Amino acid sequence: MPADDGVTGPDGSSDPAGDAIRARLTRAVVPADPAGAYERVVEKKVARRVRRRVGTVVLAVTVVAGTATGSYALIGAFRSARTPLPPAASSSTGFTNGLIAFVNDGGPPAVGDGIYVARPDGTGVHRLGTGSDPSWSADGSKIAFRVFLQAPGTYVYVMNADGSGSRLVAESVTDAAPDPAWLPGGSDIVYVGSKAVAGDRILSVPVSLPGVREGRVLAATSNGCSLGHPAVSRTGTIAVRVLCPAPVQTTDIELLDQGTRRLVPVPSTTGAGAGPAWAPDGRTLLFGRGGAVYSIRSDGTDLRHLASVSAQSLSYSPDGTKIMVETAGAAEAHRVEVMDAEGRNLRPLPLPSWASSPSWQPVPIGGVPTPSHVHSPSPPSPAPSPSPSPSPSPTDLCPTTLVDADFDGDGTRDTATVEAVDCPADGVPHWTMYVVFGGGHHPPISWDLPECEGDYAVLDCAAVGSIPMNDGTTSLALRIGEGASTVAYEMLNMPPDVTPQEYLVTPPGSPEFPPGHVAVFYDEGSVTHEDFFRCQGGPYPGGGDQATIVETNATLNKYQGMYTLVQTVLAHGPNSGQAELIVVSRDTRKVGFDAFSRNPGKYVQGAPCW
Amino acid sequence: MDEYEVRRFLATEYPRLVAGLTLVSGSRAAAEDAVQEALARAWERSERGLRIESLPAWVATVSMNLARSGLRRRLAARRARARLSVRGPDPHDEGRGWVSADDRVDIEHALSRLSRRQREAVVLRYYLGFSVLEIADVMGVSEGTAKTTLFRARAALSRALGSATDQERDGSEEANDHAGR
Fold it and tell me: Does the predicted model carry a pTM greater than 0.90?
């Protein structure tokens, strides 16, 4: 057997078994059609560029002022304008420097993508899990990060400092990075989201209420400007970069007055291409512009040139004595460096060469307890290998969603929770659901959701809202999957003394569809339907017209063929000029409940909205 | 690396690489997504001045890594469906890319009995025509380990496909020898 191959036969000349395998494999699968592949490669390349925020695209920054409790710190930020600039390198910040979280994006393939941590001396490199853009909470106990999807957007997750307990917090419908950042106190996260039409928004979401949801809008742009990299001071003032494309591309750093929801430019920051980052004093901002790093008061005074270095990202060390800079060199090469707070003594941090998007963990001095391993970043014990050691076990990304509503009609709030119990990397999660009734009239109920584990369950199952029905009950809308052109929902009635009544709601296209007509469905050319459930364009003035279509006799195409339509309900908006159509169908796998034959006339009351 | 080189790769290497990855991962959509992503990364790296010795081997390595995650596969399927939903009536991945149902079932069943590493080795060798040395590079293992993996995979696959021969047994014994050194 030739040593260089190992697949020929023992005599070195033939390998019938190998040939047989080769033939079977070749017969089994056809080569792919490369049509359209080039465009998708370009899309991915552009998306990677956006995600890495590499290059010369300069986002403008909006600064949002606010605290977790809703008061505004903007005035305070301006009030500091006339006071002498305190040394940013204060050693009395109350924090010491912990681990550095960073991302492998574009590194060697042997090193898995994802979020890593290391000690500042470069030791102890290990992978926490999937994600990018890590952001430490103020007490260093948690990390917010994002998971990028091309459609519909990006998800914001939170995990513990050791990489455990990842859970979904928010969905950011955006083409760009949401750049999650923590509000003081660690109860809320701010991030950037966008709608294609409405422009970018800054949102906040409480981390204690996990789920696929969009946060509260703190500010929005309406002139095509993009927002990026919100930074929150320790007093709650939020700053972001802003890029306004027309008529002349401009960028700057701005503050958001949370009271008026207006963006307030920070003077002298035009052209900012990196940052902002807050100094520990909560009054000084860092930003990068044109190959230099500057500090400036939040009122635009006391602009100081700190160092001549082209920065992609900037941040102060938690103890305030250093500035960490992700530098952009020739050919887009980047590395993580550190300099004194005054801008002197720039030197590389001994992190892996592929480290990017660094975030430094604050460790409270005798303060908030955090996991013990987080508190012992240095000096380390038996020094682990400085080389990266990707974890073989992926991060636990079990999503959980919940919806509050009065499901049992007793006037109190009930909570329905949908969660994946375990999330194997190479398998389908096991999904369950449970409901806790607030009034104490009914015991909690729970059941498995096998429909979330089928072939069509390519979307994570999620409790997406509640729908008032025309008979006075409230149903839970459960998103269970995504077909070729539809998102599939189940509507669940949950009186605890009755077996959950299951409906399937598959909203197809939105053609002009007068009441009384028979529904016709096409195999293609449909539209995105999830918007209907998000009340885009609704609710309808005057309540809209409701009409029930009896028995459509329609069958969804083969990709949606797991459902048989039994009833459609039409909501015709009188002012929209276009009908909206909800199709209620029955899951043929779950025989035994025909909602409309047993409850004739039952339909969604009004425009569902959540 | 420029548009010409990318298009040339798509026309020459891409079809079989995607098909091979389909054999490994079981999903054509995930395979397409992984290879496209890997190619985008290669392109980006070349623009950053980083040299790639062998583009096919590099893309194979990275796409194998990308397709290894079940989560990524699920997300890839989702993105693929989103794309296809506006393009045509055949958005479902089920059965796509396979020649015949019988062959597909047989091969799927046989491959499913192999470890992930064995599946990769078999496909790299017998479908994509990589040498053992190249397989070792792609899988990040020594040449001896690659050879052992390949022998065992071949024997297991032959048994699963009902074509075990003395040669496989011989090969398996040799593989054991390799493993014992």
Answer: no
